[in-house]
Structures
1.
Amino acid sequence: MKYSAITLLKKVLVYCAGLFIMAMGVSFSGTADLGMSPVNSIPYVLSEIFTFLSMGTWIIVIFSLYILIQFLILGRDLQPARVLQLICTTLFGYFTDFTNFLADRFLPDPASLSLSPAGIYGVRLLYLAISMALIALGILLYLAPCLISLPGEGIMQVIADKLHLPLHTVKMCFDITVSLIALAISLAYFRQFHGIREGTVIAAFGVGKILGLYEPLKPRVHRFMYGWEAA
């Protein structure tokens, strides 16, 4: 289907807005310090160890590895268009660095607040809740234009198609795998849980639940992009 230049521009704007809002959610999650979402856990832990590279740069590195794995799995069935995932990977990485910069400047660190331990933990939970709400909204917006998927979703889809498995099953296995890898790296370097905590588990289930609450927004997003309400 061909779209007008205005429609394409709106689709790109919605797509980029979704990536940016997801990056904001990642930054809130990092400030909460209760554990990152599974897909961002490895870049976060590596950025805490190898600080000469930012978290956004580590996102680009790890997500690019996911693209390479997709190519290896597909083999002769390689779809060259999948290399376009580098575009959204780079955008998301830069957005994450920018929102981390904003969070460092304007978002109070819970540990620095003059509150009781219970109060500090409450602030961390509040940040985590905001993080999940932002990530869920970002997912809704970034998926709505049906443009390029991030490599995390891309590799899950490739594995699901190749092994003839339900996508939700592959997602669960993928999330567990990357979380365990991040946990192993964290324990090996920090000798404690760092980047993988209760917030990781809460986000793994909570983001999907919140995403369902955003369903009524879909028609409005489609009206903005296309001028009509999709079914």
Note: DSSP finds nine helices and no strands in the chain.
2.
Amino acid sequence: MRYRVLGGTGIEVSAYCLGTMMFGAIGNPDHTDSVRVIHAALDQGINFVDTADMYSMGESEEIVGKALRDPKRRAETVLATKGYFTMGDGPARGGLSRRWLTRAVEDSLTRLGTDWIDLYQVHRPDHRTDIEETLAVLGDLQAQGKIRAFGCSTFPAEQIVEAHAVADRRGLRPFRTEQPPYSLLARGVENAVLPVARKYGMGVLTWSPLASGFLTGKYRKGQPVDLTSGRPSITPHRFDPEIPGNAAKLDAVEQLVALTEEIGCSLPELALAFAAAHPAVTSVIIGPRTRDQLDGLLKGAPLVLDDEVLDRIDEIVPPGTNLYQADGAWRPPHMTDPALRRRPVGDRAAAG
């Protein structure tokens, strides 16, 4: 396992990070087995574990807490979690306000069974809260020792720039990391997010390197897909070959499979090595549900792609190209609410 420094934090982390979204009700509900998978990852050199409060509504954090109950394991593990999404019923139980983040961090500390979080990330942007408010409370939580560093997740480049400008202007601590979606089939963050993160010296941990399962090798052109089970049952629109756009993904997969056969690796190994090859990327998040999946992913950890292979990949999926929009990626309010893109009816005629 290779290790890299996480941005300007001075924290050394493994080039692969164990993502724990699949531990709990939405993935592996067996706590004992999930703990075994986490321990196996740590025993194989991973020292970076990423979770979030909303993964199975806190259950994933509880499982991670059980896995890190031993003080030595906890001390040797860089533990990251996230907050933003609504937790439970009722108002004011989500977002990036001082009121909510103060509570969210306390709740995560309780579920994780720890006194500190090494990296706390705001899971998505919050258009209802001034970024100054968010940075201020995160800085206070860091000063209190409850979090050691903080960052953002799935922020567009312009909001990362705004956050750094506000931090500089107001004398606040800035985001130290960004966690974007990045894969062979979703290279859009190469346009601005990754260069901006690099400019500001931010660490980057990327999610969905297997493109929602398309880069596992399980889904191939011309082969039927069972849309009623597994990942296709959760997001059938990503896998239905009859839906426009999916054909391009399958075509790319076929070309990438041919490339793996030439260089002697598996498609998942190629996918992970590709994400890890970008100079802005610190760590690639893998999200196994079982021990077999973990072992299969870590098998390719030593793989380093040379320029010739990376050039071939660029020919298959050009740099900066998204062949699909990553599930769960953030969209700004003006793209989801038509009213924000339209003048009031009475003003339209006057506008000419």
Note: The domain at 3-351 is CATH 3.20.20.100 (TIM Barrel).
3.
Amino acid sequence: MNAVHKRLPFSSYSDAYALPSIIRCETNLYVAQFAFMKLLPAKYIIEQALARGTLRHGMKVLETSSGTFALGLAVVCRERGFQLEIFTDPVMDKGLENRLRSLGAEVFIIAEKAKQGGYQRSRLDALHARMKKWGHSCFWPQQYETPDNPAAYKFFADQISGMLGADVTLVGSVGSGGSTCGTIERLREKAPGARLVGVDTFNSVIFGQQDGERKLRGLGNSLVPKNVKHELYDEVHLISAQLAFAATRTLHERHAVFAGPTSGASYIVGRWRARRYPEETVVAICPDEGHRYVEAAYDREWLKQNACAYDSVLLDAPATENHPSTALPPWNRYPWKRKSRKAVLDVPEGASS
């Protein structure tokens, strides 16, 4: 990380790409574009495990992931000389799988969903079975639970505060909870009034929806991760896959920011927030670049074939719901007001928030 601050040549790929480029899109709207964001916590988790001695050379690293946390681990394990096993599901795209294998990772695709908890649960079950076999000769990073995941984002928070000050409105997608919660906790050490807007998708249980099929990947969950600290969020938005894909293309067409659908979801929310509150400095997190999505989000035929096309004019504002469970596509906003999940969801539907 020091190379970033001293402007020295980078000693590795993970040093070079751990932090994003911060780009101004509108008067008070900035996007923080990562090459792939999960490289930052993967690098930090492995470094901390080595420092503590919970990971030693000769041990295997095992993790469950269907996205770029697996890629982050693969990069760091290749740099550090560790064998990596990834437990994923059929949703992982072939390009990512090929890249993982090229970096030396062994990829196990779990084809059957658990009745409770979906693929996340079945992948965890497979990982636990594997850990029983390897015993103390393996290390599990536990991205959804380890406090090292959110702690890694202190570097990102310091990058923001160094450029824009700490009193910002951070907008980001919520999957493991690490990026949004870790970043805002660090920012609020300097600016307690810094605001956090979480972006989720429909049929994700994190903020109170019923679990169901989700076409938008990289955010949402069938389980509630321990690293999601609900009391940190000022506001929560739910975005449909169709709208996120459309916003992703708009981000590219208007600002040349080539990013994935989770970035599109954060961008449309960030744009709305920046226009509604012109006195705020809004930073929208773009978790990865668009290369993986050229034949998906950027391909109109694919969008039509997969019922992901959005043919209307891009929405300028969300609907506002009194209870997260009643939110309906394509875009809904709920004023979370830094409450616990239980406090919010125990409010009867239809009651004032």
Note: The chain has a mean pLDDT of 93.
